[in-house]
Amino acid sequence: MLCQAHAAVVKTIGQTPICELVDVPSPTTNQIQVQVIAVGIHQIVRSIVNGQHYTKVKTLPMIPGVDGVGTLPNGKKVYFIKMAPPNGTMSQLVNVDKDMMIPLPDNADPIVFAAIMNAGLASWTAITERAQIQSGETVLVLGVTGSSGQMAATSARLLGAKHVIGVGRNQSILDQLVKEGTIDVSISLSDDLAQYQELIAKEAADADIVMDFLWGKPTEIALAGIHSRRKNSEQRLRWIQIGQMAGTTIQLPGGLLRSKNIEMIGSGLGSISLKQMLKSLETMIPMVIQEKLTTSVLEISLTDIEKKWQETTDAKERVVVVM
User: Fold this and answer.
1) Are 306 and 10 in contact (CB under 8 A)?
2) d(Cα 227, Cα 237) in Å, to the nearest integer?
3) At what angle do helices 274-289 and 110-122 cross, to 10 degrees?
4) Would 218 disulfide with which of 62, 71, 214, 279, CB 3.0-4.6 Å?
């Protein structure tokens, strides 16, 4: 039996979504229909809409969105994931597989959780599941001034990192992160690449984990800097590739990998199963409830999606659509 709900709809790849009534089928035996409260416009959502993500949409029109927060028929709050383009989550009603959701406490703010859980995939999940951080380790975050980078640094600290080093371009944010104790040392990503390499060599040569949101040239220079000053060639270094804000490729000399114990590990959809992601995120929930992990949020209404989609492209806050 069909019912109708308002949803964001994309009719052409690269086109701004518009709010329209759509038909919603009854859930299958493996699904539950969720009354959606809020959905984040994450970077992955924009990338899929623009046809720039490795997850390709083969059928149009589509509803964007990969996750959200809503309520079950019994009134309980849940966070859910649905990676099934063209049937995304930016709709008032969404049929979700029963094993693709986790319960949220009654006092959970749905707007905050819609904003922060995807960031947790790039930070909390990456550092727990892919880096498998151990207490007392040193962590270098490339791209620490972005929202995901800041959360990665905070997550590393909460999970027992002894020393956290942050690289970024925004000096005021770097200074604030040091002042707050989120990172111990900041390195400015300036146009002086020789100076950048020297600072990496000085501060991060003995890092155990690199959380890399940048890729491209900054990664090449950081690898060279660590390699040049690393004393123990057998010491394990887990390089977690998460984002590519500075470039999609790097030049990587084979000798660098042979001469040092460096593991290059991707973290994202495909390298981690959705069930594994949810299991990891479930352990993050108490940190959000206790406000040990936070993020700034910009709310927009579903009815304003066409107007606000482009306006919020460069928003510093996490953008959340309220149904």
Assistant:
1) no
2) 11
3) 130
4) 214
- Average pLDDT of span 100-126: 95
Residue 281 burial (10 A CB sphere; 0-12, 13-18, 19+): buried
The per-residue pLDDT for range 229-280, each reduced to its tens digit, is 999 999 999 999 999 999 999 999 999 999 999 999 999 878 988 899 999 9
Residues 125-130: what's their mean pLDDT?
A: 95
Cα distance between residue 251 and residue 217, in whole Å = 8
CA atoms of 85 and 1, how far apart (whole Å): 22
The model's confidence at residue 44, banded by pLDDT at 50, 70 and 90, is: confident
- C-alpha span between 168 and 146 (Å, rounded): 8
* Percent of the chain with pLDDT strictly greater than 90: 84
Q: Identify each DSSP E strand in 179-277 by its residue range.
A: 185-188, 209-212, 237-241, 262-266
Distance between CA atoms of residues 248 and 216, nearest Å: 6
Q: How many CB atoms lie within 10 A of CB 74?
A: 6
Q: How many CB atoms lie within 10 A of CB 206?
A: 15
Using pLDDT thresholds of 50, 70 and 90, give the confidence band for residue 311.
very high
- Whether the full predicted model's pTM is greater than 0.85, yes or no, is yes
- CA-to-CA separations, 204 to 115, 168, 234, 237, in angstroms, rounded: 31, 14, 16, 11
- Whole-number Cα distances in Å, 322 to 133, 299, 302: 35, 7, 6
Question: Rounded to whole angstroms, what are the CA distances from 115 to 22, 102, 199?
Answer: 24, 16, 34
What mean pLDDT do residues 84-108 have?
94
